[in-house]
Design goal:
The protein is of the alpha/beta class. 33% of the residues lie in helices and 20% in strands. It has nine helices and seven strands. The chain has a seven-stranded mixed β-sheet, sandwiched between helices. The longest helix is centred in the first third of the chain and has 18 residues, at 16-33. The mean pLDDT is 85.
């Protein structure tokens, strides 16, 4: 079921609304990964969509489930998002485009991401906003489905931030975009182009899709050792006698 959903989503990305959100997400992810450094970067899912093209990390790869076309990607790893075949604390960057929405256990996906990321490693996630015009469209009975994601599988950016904080991630960026209604024709999408600037300014929370970027934080360790007692030497203090007492002492001599 999960594989079929991934195939449907890959096909949907080639439609007019799919290319619309794909263009926005590509620009947002490029801006984040371009400033992320390290040695190993992995994209989880959607191998035909290269979201690591702007990354300067030396080694880049992508995961895909068995049977999913590789999209001509180099360094393709066959794996499930819930069980990543990577060592603990071995990756510097993880990009998850719409992975949680199609996962059977999104909490396990995040736990695996936390496990394989190095301390101070970065995770970048994208998803559909259930509180946008697109999300409300999915909830209205009788309307044709606009996206391959079921309404009950949508995860808001606020909930995702809470999940990340529970796993000791520090969320440092949240972006929302694509404010036009769900249009299936390019001509109508162009007529709604004016709403992009207004939406970003006045109702930034209502974009059709979002991007969340977070850094894995590890609590600093404090070295605890035995408390050594310091040997204190007694210092004899010289007594200086002055004044009348000094004169009396001189008279006795």
């Amino acid at each position: 079921m999960e594989q079929a959903l991934n195939d449907q989503f890959a096909q949907w990305l080639e439609t007019v609304p799919g290319r619309y959100i794909r263009s926005w997400e590509q620009a947002q992810v490029d801006a984040v990964v371009a400033n992320t450094f390290g040695y190993h970067a992995i994209q989880i899912g959607l191998p035909h969509w290269n979201l690591l093209q702007a990354s300067r990390v030396s080694f880049k790869a992508c995961t895909a489930q068995s049977g999913v076309p590789g999209g001509g990607r180099d360094n393709l790893v066959r794996a499930q998002a819930e069980q990543l075949p990577f060592d603990t604390q071995s990756l510097d960057l993880l990009v998850l485009p719409h992975v949680l929405e199609s996962a059977c256990d999104p909490h396990q996906v995040l736990r695996e991401a936390e496990r394989v990321l190095m301390p101070e490693g970065r995770i970048v996630l994208t998803g559909f906003n259930p509180w946008s015009l697109w999300g409300m469209h999915e909830r209205i009975p009788g309307l044709e489905r606009g996206t391959p994601i079921l309404p009950g599988d949508l995860i808001s950016a606020a909930r995702l931030r809470d999940w990340l904080k529970l796993l000791s991630f520090d969320v440092d960026a949240t972006q929302s975009g694509c404010y036009a209604p769900l249009c299936r024709q390019q001509v109508w999408l162009q007529r709604w182009a004016w709403i992009e600037d207004s939406g970003a300014r006045w109702w930034g929370f209502a974009g059709a899709v979002y991007m969340v970027s977070a850094v894995k934080r590890t609590p600093a360790l404090r070295m605890v050792g035995p408390k050594w007692k310091k040997n204190r030497r007694r210092v004899r203090r010289a007594v200086v006698v002055t004044g009348r007492a000094a004169d009396q002492g001189m008279n006795k001599i």
